[in-house]
Amino acid sequence: MDQQIIIIGVIILMIGLAVILAGFLGKQSGKAKVEWGFGGFIGPFPFGIASSKGMLYVLITIMMVLAVLCFLFCKF
């Protein structure tokens, strides 16, 4: 089971790197607007910082989904 989780994690990491590379290669021509966001948890409370309102809404939505999943699947 532990080995399967490691393999799944490596596959997700490779997919993420491929998406970043594709985005970088696709935006080489002309000026590209870059938006960023950062989120995390302090205890059970999610927080986020972003460069635009739209990105902040996306980030907060992702953090809320992750918080719900954590509460559902964590063993108390």
Summarize the structure.
The protein is α+β, with helices and mostly antiparallel strands.
Walk me through what this model shows:
It is flat, with a radius of gyration of 16 Å. A two-stranded antiparallel sheet has the order 1-2. The model has no long low-confidence stretch (mean pLDDT 82). By secondary structure, the chain is an alpha+beta fold. The protein folds into 2 domains: 30 residues; 44 residues. It contains 2 helices and 2 strands.
Features:
single chain; 76 residues; 2 domains; 2 strands; flat
Rg from Cα: 16 Å
User: What is the domain total for the residues?
Assistant: 2
* Terminal Cα span: 21 Å
The percent range for strand residues is 15-25%
The structural class is alpha+beta
Number of E strands? 2
Mean pLDDT, as a whole number? 82
Residue ranges: pLDDT <50 for 5 or more in a row? none
Number of helices: 2
Write the layout of secondary structure elements.
Layout: H1 2-26, E1 37-42, E2 45-50, H2 53-73
Antiparallel strand pairs: 1-2
